[in-house]
Amino acid sequence: MNHSPQVGRPRRSSQRILEESAAELFLxxxxxxxxxxxxxxxxxxxxxxxxxYFGSKSDVLWVDIDETLERLSLELAAASPSVPVMDAxxxxxxxxxxxxxxxxxxxxxxxxxxxxxxxxxxxSGLRRLMxxxxxLRDFIGQRVRSADSSLSRAAAFxxxxxxxxxxxxxxxxGVGRRALxxxxxxxxxxxxxxxxxxxxxx
Amino acid sequence: MNHSPQVGRPRRSSQRILEESAAELFLxxxxxxxxxxxxxxxxxxxxxxxxxYFGSKSDVLWVDIDETLERLSLELAAASPSVPVMDAxxxxxxxxxxxxxxxxxxxxxxxxxxxxxxxxxxxSGLRRLMxxxxxLRDFIGQRVRSADSSLSRAAAFxxxxxxxxxxxxxxxxGVGRRALxxxxxxxxxxxxxxxxxxxxxx
DNA sequence: CCGAATTATTGGACGCGGTGTAATAACTAC
DNA sequence: GTAGTTATTACACCGCGTCCAATAATTCGG
Lengths: 202, 202
Fold this sequence. Notes:
The structure is a homodimer of 202-residue chains. By secondary structure, chain A is an all-alpha fold.
């Protein structure tokens, strides 16, 4: 699991360095107006090296989010089979949110206003979220004997969307905010309750 | 409202022509492998003319969707103030879906499999939907005296995401499918019910 | 019939993101 | 020192999207 090689040419840069260089430039020039060249140049590496550490320019904005979201499948797998499916979903999503370090507010969200086109930001953010939709849909569908797979899909989509909205609210709340998990729980709760009433009409 | 000019050079092309040329090429080569140049060339116009009719390459995929989605704000405005908020939301969204012509299955969704990266497609489609989130959020927030605006946002996001999932299911159902509005109602219903229980605990 | 105004189309150039490839640098192990 | 491994680099390329200036095709007013 440890991917730190003792052999071969040592790394000159790192995700952190590039991230910081990018953040500076974004603040100075906004996201839209800074090029990958500039980021790489400030970090002291070539443009191609940037793409060695990030798959795309927008990836810089979401490093923290990605790390946190990877926990979702683990949390789902750890769910007890005895608890109702939508309760398990709500708890898993909430726990993922709780695992996110409170001090690490994703850069992208804190400076939404500074980023020229907000659409591009939303698009890349949604894409991040949708990556998890398959995992969530499979989990729900697995536990539901309903032949109507569209319901699982809808539940997964709606749950993640609510979580995204909660994250947005959390950031907007500013310094005096409560914990992220609370916002997420408040937003995801109604969605899961609504679908639970349909999926498990017990 | 009619912007058809009697003066000036007449149009050589149209959105329909370009759309059809694009559809042919997408089927032959997939979306990812066809360039804007090719679309324009097949339509008998120059590349720049393409951008006269569409803002971007992906816009071609969503013309029908965009037309339908524009109805949302109208439906919301027509809602009676006496009916509970989330009921009004559910009905409005369902009516928008009902207004979509059943024969006009959005090209993008019918051929999801043929389009290289499905992620990009899903994201761009969801983005279209989320353009309406402001309208929906404002509508909900207006009728709710709750100071917690984050709930309105979550409700709007979740509702639209459920609608998107329903649209996907509708397309996947193939030729023997029921009406789009039914899928949407099934998916949006639980979401609205869940939030109604929180927003209007009456 | 002629010019002015209007609108669509066109070509050309540019910037930027992203990909691919082949060369090379920096290091470890033997 | 040589071989193997990995990171970095330069270079070329493609495609999307934008901008701009030129031009074609039409209507309108004289």
